[in-house]
Design brief:
GO terms for molecular function: aspartate-tRNA ligase activity; aspartate-tRNA(Asn) ligase activity; ATP binding; RNA binding. Belongs to the class-II aminoacyl-tRNA synthetase family. Type 2 subfamily. InterPro entries: Aa-tRNA-synt_II, aa-tRNA-synth_II, aa-tRNA-synth_II/BPL/LPL, Asp-tRNA_synthase_2, Asp/Asn-tRNA-synth_IIb, NA-bd_OB-fold, NA-bd_OB_tRNA. It is found in: Cytoplasm. The chain is of the alpha+beta class. The protein folds into 2 domains: about 90 residues, Nucleic acid-binding proteins (OB fold (Dihydrolipoamide Acetyltransferase, E2P)), CATH 2.40.50; about 300 residues, BirA Bifunctional Protein, domain 2 (2-Layer Sandwich), CATH 3.30.930. About 30% of the residues lie in helices and about 25% in strands. The strands form 4 sheets. Strands 7-11-12-19-18-17-14-13 form an 8-stranded mixed beta sheet. Strands 2-3-4-6-5 form a 5-stranded mixed barrel. A hairpin with a 2-residue loop joins strand 17 and strand 18. The radius of gyration is 26 Å and the shape is elongated. The two termini are about 35 Å apart. Bound molecules: aspartyl-adenosine-5'-monophosphate. The site of aspartyl-adenosine-5'-monophosphate has 22 residues, from strand 12, strand 18, strand 19 and helix 13.
């Protein structure tokens, strides 16, 4: 019977068993040889009476009997009676799979993706990510949301024109979607009311930073019949609290591998909502108290994101902050305006979530009134003819609605404390990297 390493370690198998996997480590002790076998469930020590002819990373299948050994990882080993080499690996490996990856450079990890993904600590990043995606979907399904899949080939951008990838489409030029923004709004207006999408989006960011990918997975939500961005913040708190609880429940080993912890549901509930102007005041006041106060901070830039999370950790015991009411000039044209008393509606019903010093989410209530939207267009230098299907969306009956998008890789990065968001993408795309 073929079983997993974990079944043997958990004592589920007592008689002869067969396990299959990769050769993780070989230790020749003269008389006997210890081989550490790795499969999807973990690692298991194999004991060979005679030295087997094996290379690291070869794929093998062995038969044997479990035996207790307190020196073996997990306290049990398998005394091998039969070996089959299913695929022999070349003796020279370009990447040390069983090494300490904290000492390996990011370029080497990404250049050797097939092998680096075999490293248990690196694999655990994607166990975490799988739970994030599953918990995101699970929470929303439970709240009566419908999962949608929309096209990534689009005729126009949604988030601004500068970071669009153009592609040839027969005799035409079109773009890769920056966001499913218009589709998710369309489907709310089409009567679905509550939708979510998990899908790739594309951003032609020219700069190389630890927070930018050119292709990432966007966890998108759109919901009808809301009053303001505050409804969305409450919804996102529910989503995040559920994701963190599921990570605690299912991925303790993966979190431990990175020495990572996640906020409790109580901590998430305590995350403050701070209006944009107040956030800048707090950030500047906190920066002035620091050892090296620099110039005034005028925007929620990466430094401000770090400072506001440190402030919230001190004040509220959680390094998660929702910043709302962004100025209109900072948000896309579809964002619902908010008049804070200047008579010019220069603010918006918008928000960002900042977690452990990094923006992980943007969201807002959207325009839903056709006339009001037409009147707002010139403010953004836009004409009705630029708007295509977006106008139709508003013209034929659209509920007040809004939504948000969480960057899946950024959330994974911050849960585990990874230095770069690229570590949280299986096959990251950046300015120089389109393979593997
Ligand atoms: P925005 O453009 O702010 O909003 O993106 C939402 C979230 O996506 C993540 N993100 C990225 N992750 C990795 N690499 C990038 N280059 C990158 N760019 C963005 C971030 C960010 O918070 N349509 C709106 C959402 C909405 O209002 O529903 C949008 O896409 O975590």
């Amino acid at each position: 019977m073929r079983v997993l390493a974990k079944d043997i370690l958990e004592g589920k198998v007592t008689g002869e068993a067969e396990v299959s996997g990769w050769v993780h480590r070989i230790r020749d002790m003269g008389g006997i040889t210890f081989v550490i076998l790795r499969d999807r469930s973990g690692i298991l020590q194999l004991v060979f009476e005679k030295k087997p002819d094996l290379t690291l990373e070869s794929v093998i299948s062995v038969k044997g009997t479990p035996a207790a050994n307190e020196k073996a990882p997990g306290g049990t080993e398998l005394r091998v009676s039969g070996l089959e080499v299913l695929s022999k690996a070349a003796p020279e490996l370009p990447f040390q799979v069983n090494g300490d990856v904290s000492k390996t450079g990011l370029e080497s990890i990404l250049d050797n993706r097939l092998l680096s993904l075999r490293n248990p600590k690196i694999r655990s990043i994607f166990n975490i990510q799988a739970t994030i995606v599953e918990a995101f979907a699970g929470f929303l399904r439970n709240q009566d949301f419908t999962e949608i899949k929309t096209s990534k080939l689009v005729s126009t951008g949604t988030e601004g024109g500068t970071n669009l990838f153009q592609v040839e489409y027969f005799d035409d030029k079109i773009c890769l979607a920056q966001s499913p923004q218009f589709y998710k709004e369309t489907l709310v207006a089409a009567g679905m009311e509550r939708v979510f999408e998990i899908g790739q989006v594309y951003r032609a960011e020219k700069h190389d930073t630890p927070r930018h990918l050119n292709e990432y997975v966007s966890l998108d939500v759109e919901v009808g019949f809301i009053e303001s961005e505050k409804d969305l913040i409450e919804l996102e708190k529910g989503v995040l609290a559920h994701i963190f609880a599921e990570l605690e429940r299912k991925n303790k080993k993966d979190l431990d591998a990175w020495n990572a912890t996640v906020p409790s549901a109580d901590a998430v509930a305590k995350a403050p909502t701070v209006p944009y102007d107040e956030c800048l005041s707090i950030v500047n006041a906190e920066a002035a108290k620091g050892k090296n106060p620099g110039g005034r901070i005028f925007d929620i830039n990466p430094e401000a994101e770090r400072i506001i999370c440190e402030w919230s950790l001190k004040e509220n015991g959680v390094d998660l902050v929702f910043v709302n009411q962004f100025p209109r000039r900072h948000r896309p044209f579809y964002t619902y305006p908010l008049d804070l008393g200047d008579g010019k509606a220069s603010s918006t019903m918008s928000f960002d979530a900042i977690f452990r010093g990094l923006e992980i989410t943007s969201g807002s209530r959207r325009h839903h009134d056709y006339q009001a939207f037409l009147e707002a267009l010139p403010r953004f230098g836009l004409k009705t003819e630029d708007m295509g299907g977006y106008l139709e969306l508003l013209k034929y009956g659209c509920p007040p609605h809004g939504g948000f998008a969480i960057g899946c890789e950024r959330l994974t990065q911050k849960v585990l404390g990874l230095t770069s968001v690229k570590e949280a993408s299986l096959f990251p795309r950046d300015r120089k990297r389109v393979a593997p």
